[in-house]
Amino acid sequence: MNRLMKTALAAALALAAGVPGAARAQDTGGRTATFAARQEFKVMIPAGTKKVRAWFTMPQEDPAQTVADFKVECPFPHKIVKDSAGNASLYVVVLEPNVKDFALVETFTITRREIRNKLDPAKASPLTDAERTAMSAELAPNQYVVIDDKIRALAKEIAGDEKNPVIAARKIYDWVLANIDYWVKFPETKKASPVGSSEYCLANKTGNCTDFHSLWTALARAQGIPTRMVYGSFFKAELNEKDKDQSYHCWPEFYVPGAGWVPHDVAVADIFHDKFELTKTNEEKVRLTTADGYKGPDPAKVDYYFGSIDERRVTWSRGRDLTMTPKQDGGPVNALAKAYIEVDGKPTGEKSGDTVNWSRKLTFIEKK
Q1: Residue 123 CA to its chain's centroid (Å)
Q2: Angle between helices 209-222 and 149-159 (to 10 degrees)
Q3: Domain span at 298
Q4: CA 295 to each of CA 274, 277, 278, 287, 292: distance values in angstroms, whole numbers, following the listed order
Q5: Are residues 307 and 343 in the same domain?
Q6: pLDDT tens string 109-135
Q7: What are the φ and ψ backbone dihedral angles of 212, each rounded to 5 degrees?
Q8: Same domain membership, residue 182 and residue 103
Q9: Taking a C-beta distance cutoff of 8 angstroms, is the pair 72, 5 a contact?
Q10: 67 pairs with which residues across the strands?
């Protein structure tokens, strides 16, 4: 990477860490882990394409993680840009391409810190008017986080008139655990939505991490708790040094006056919430849904994941309904979990039927 690229990276990461609303929690401490990671994107270019624009995720610099030795390999010019939520990403534009595909490879070392919180409701207080105004976006609906009369009524049924954000947030957390099942526990009968939908999750009582957390976010925001989504990936212990993609994972952060932005992971907590039968169909899915495997119900982990998250993660972005830089031709970007790619001005998903449009592989080696 040349000096200009290094300078741009440092500036973008510093800005991403320092933008208003950057991650804050009561206590960043506990365990740490360091990983040498490789993230590879491959984009297939249909014949006759005039223009490809792509925004690729990159590791963010924030209080929970430190990024070093970031390098990029790509056959086309690329630069670091920031989206409407302040996320840094790598932007590539290819005009009149004369190739069938191209790859962009990121390598980096990341040290991740566990975020551990023991939330004390007695030290929390309701939002002030100034905080409510400053966090209006984190209290508003998104395309797939719907806040309607049904959600408002359910939030009130769950949390009543509770104004303490810690108590109300935990009531919603416990309700989701009691009423929603992670699809990987019962893959024969349950599945996730393709977009991360609060409405899908509530109607079907199931979903993946984005469905779970979209529903939790809708209920929390309806109760007046500012909430935002974090998109990242696990560094799954059993996949260390394996040639297998780590997929993606997401979790919310909610704002507590006096504590700041506090993470939780009710989706992973659901795996440890109650007993269910492990089968040939679900065993691997359940195990790989967590950072370090599954050994049965664990009430301590259920409590842990309300306010704390483990150190085997990487953060790619925050927020939903994003506007990219330069502005995308399509509508708001639902989420930036891996990449956002347009071909001749049209958004392109990872697959169309049996056709792979682009792919991502994240692999790592844990450094002792």
Answers
A1: 28
A2: 80
A3: 116-315
A4: 12, 12, 10, 8, 10
A5: no
A6: 999 999 999 899 999 988 999 999 999
A7: -50, -50
A8: no
A9: yes
A10: 110
